[in-house]
Design brief:
Blueprint (H helix, E strand, L loop, with lengths): L1 E7 L5 E8 L5 E5 L4 E8 L5 E3 L7 H6 L7 E2 L5 E2 L3 E4 L2 E4 L8 E2 L12 E5 L3 E8 L10 E9 L4 E10 L3 E2 L3 E2 L17 E4 L3 E2 L14 E2 L11 E2 L9 H6 L3 E5 L8 E7 L5 E7 L3 E5 L7 E2 L5 E2 L6 E5 L14 E2 L5 E11 L2
Antiparallel strand pairs: 1-2, 2-3, 3-4, 4-5, 6-16, 7-10, 8-9, 11-12, 12-13, 13-14, 14-29, 15-28, 17-20, 17-22, 18-19, 18-21, 21-24, 22-23, 23-29, 24-27, 25-26
Length: 348
């Protein structure tokens, strides 16, 4: 474990970046701003390391853009309809930062704060965030922790934990954008993906709030139960894809009993790098980077829409307001825990 100054925020606060390595040459860089994965270097089939996540060179660039590259998202990941929730009979109004909805907890979410480094070891890093009552318009003083662990099996495990002193919402995720050919390799539509989900949650319209239905993927372009290229059906004349400009949908994972499950697999034929996703969450959001837009990334790389994809493990979008979905409500005396693993290997 090593740590070094990464730069300063626009407010003048110092940001530190920490490097985890394993015996196989894999490396993960995590900064305390947003508890963010800045880079993730994985050996390809030639043994050369490729950085497979999008990012920036300075903290201020992370603050200036709205893609949430690599950040921890909380208290609530994804969207809440009309920025409104009711907890214990009381209504709370949240920031409406996305088509009248609250997205990723608004501008003051976990992605925007500097986390305190609480514990370091040879291969892991634990960061802590004290979120005050009302800080993101959510009730309750919350203590949140995230632990990154890089194993010698080439797994990056992300474990979340949170407690509160008042009923609130706890639904965390990591918003890394993956391109398994390398962050600077351009369009990822030719990379293959499988999601172990027979159902997904359709959205009402382009504002991307679920209807409450859990619909079958069978016979639709939403079906990723077998490996296929991400771009194969992305332009299909299918209303859900039209609404989102491509894939930006939550999948209801087949095994959702709270135990670790194999949720997804992705592969780059060009690099040979493959990634398995394991999680104890009920859902996973596939976002195909439809709105990344033209911008400059790490080391001068040119990024654009569809240059990376996200696999965000989570409760379903708007679950706090949708009675048919598993609830993300956390009460006093309870502890929120969730773990997701991104596991890498090479296919020759």
């Amino acid at each position: 474990m090593t740590g070094k100054i990464f730069g300063k925020t626009r407010e003048g606060n110092t940001v530190t970046k920490y490097t985890l390595t394993n015996q196989n040459g894999m490396e993960a860089e995590i900064m305390d701003l947003g508890a963010t994965v800045v880079s993730l270097k994985v050996p390809d089939r030639q043994g050369e390391r490729r950085d497979v996540v999008l990012g920036y060179d300075t903290p201020q660039e992370y603050q200036e853009h709205t893609c949430y590259f690599g950040a921890v998202i909380g208290r609530n990941a994804n969207r809440i309809s009309q920025g409104k929730i009711v907890l214990d009979g009381k209504e709370y109004r949240l920031e409406q930062n996305d088509n009248e909805n609250n997205l990723h907890s608004g501008s003051r979410g976990f992605h925007a704060v500097i986390w305190e480094v609480e514990k370091v070891s040879e291969n892991s890093l634990t960061l802590c965030c004290e979120s005050r009552d009302g800080e993101q318009d959510f009730p309750g003083n919350m203590t949140a922790r995230v632990t990154y662990t890089l194993t010698d099996e080439n797994e990056l495990a992300i474990a979340y934990e949170a407690m509160t002193d008042k009923t609130t919402v706890a639904n965390f995720t990591n918003h890394s954008y993956f391109n398994l050919s390398g962050h600077d390799s351009g369009c990822m539509e030719g990379q293959e993906l499988m999601i172990l989900a027979s159902y997904y949650t359709p959205v009402v319209d382009a504002k991307a709030i679920p209807t409450g239905e859990i619909a079958s993927v069978s016979g639709t372009p939403m079906d990723f139960r077998k490996m296929k290229k991400i771009g194969r059906d992305i332009g299909a004349d299918f209303q859900q894809l039209v609404f989102a400009g491509g894939y930006d949908h939550n999948y209801a994972l087949d095994k959702a009993d709270g135990s670790m499950q194999h949720a997804a697999r992705a592969k780059s034929e060009e690099s040979g790098i493959c990634m398995d996703v394991y999680t104890d969450c009920v859902g996973i959001q596939l976002y195909a980077g439809n709105f990344i837009g033209k911008q400059k990334g790490k080391a001068g790389a040119s990024y654009d829409s569809r240059h990376a994809f996200c696999l965000e493990t989570q409760y379903f979008p708007n679950a706090v307001n949708e009675k048919s979905f598993r609830s993300p409500v956390l009460r006093t005396g309870e502890t929120y825990r969730s773990t997701t693993k991104y596991c890498f290997f090479v296919e020759r």
